[in-house]
Design a protein that fits this description.
Blueprint lengths: L5 E5 L6 H11 L3 E3 L3 E2 L14 E2 L2 H9 L3 E7 L2 E6 H9 L3 E5 L2 H9 L5 E7 L3 H11 L4 H15 L7 E4 L3 H18 L11 H4 L1
The structure holds guanosine-5'-monophosphate.
Guanosine-5'-monophosphate binds next to strand 5, strand 6 and helix 4.
């Protein structure tokens, strides 16, 4: 019997997911990221065991055969997977977990009723605005920007399958919405906004 809850979060690149999640995690205790395994090479500044567990394709495939992953998917030619033992262990300790995963992985988890989960999709207000944000970063090549826009169109098709849709038009409002969703989901689980169980029921 698990006590924590999974928050499955997907968004097209440039929708502001990382900023939103960091802001809400700073406000609400008891929320942690799950560190995925990936066959992608580390980008500058990324640390093994912190951003991802970076593994070879052979190692990933062997782990997958052993049932190590709760879900996995191939994204942009690399494999990504969520550690089953790490997630189950944290949930058992009452920790809520945020899974920042793609739309394929989210679909797999939504179908499996084994673990209580809420699914959230973070969308940009429009595709032209997404393009403006991606260009504004000034970090990506034209080719990368066009690929991200193409992927965003595809990922947006999956938005109606999620329980919650947060449109990140104005950051403050999007943060309020995300915080409200986490608090409401915790209340569904008879827990305080901090994630702790509500003691009064066991005192009756
Ligand atoms: P990036 O390589 O830019 O960090 O991530 C690329 C995509 O892979 C993002 O959409 C991210 O949400 C997704 N992703 C990261 N970890 C996982 C995972 O464990 N499972 C799945 N299905 N997708 C993941």
């Amino acid at each position: 019997m698990t006590t924590g809850k999974l928050f499955i979060v997907s968004a097209p690149s440039g929708a502001g997911k990382t900023t939103l999640l960091k802001r809400v995690m700073a406000d609400l205790p008891g929320l942690a990221f799950s560190v995925s395994h990936t066959t992608r090479l580390p980008r500058g500044g990324e640390q093994d065991g912190v951003d991802y567990h970076f593994v070879s394709r052979a190692r990933f495939e062997a782990m997958r055969e052993q049932g190590f992953f709760l879900e996995w998917a191939e994204v942009h030619g690399n494999l990504y997977g969520t550690s089953r033992p790490a997630v189950l262990d944290q949930l058992a300790k009452g920790q809520d977990i945020i899974l920042d995963i793609d739309v394929q992985g989210a679909a797999i988890l939504r179908k499996s009723a084994a673990i209580p989960a809420a699914s959230l999709f973070i969308a940009p207000p429009s595709l032209p605005e997404l393009e403006r944000r991606l260009r504004g970063r000034g970090t990506d090549s034209e080719e990368t920007i066009l690929l991200r826009l193409k992927n965003a169109r595809m990922e947006m098709q999956a938005a109606p399958d999620y329980e919650y849709l947060i449109v990140n038009a104005e950051l403050g409002q999007a943060i309020d919405t995300l915080r409200a969703i986490v608090i409401a989901e915790r209340s569904r689980g008879h827990r305080l906004p901090t994630g702790q169980p509500i003691a009064i029921l066991s005192e009756l």
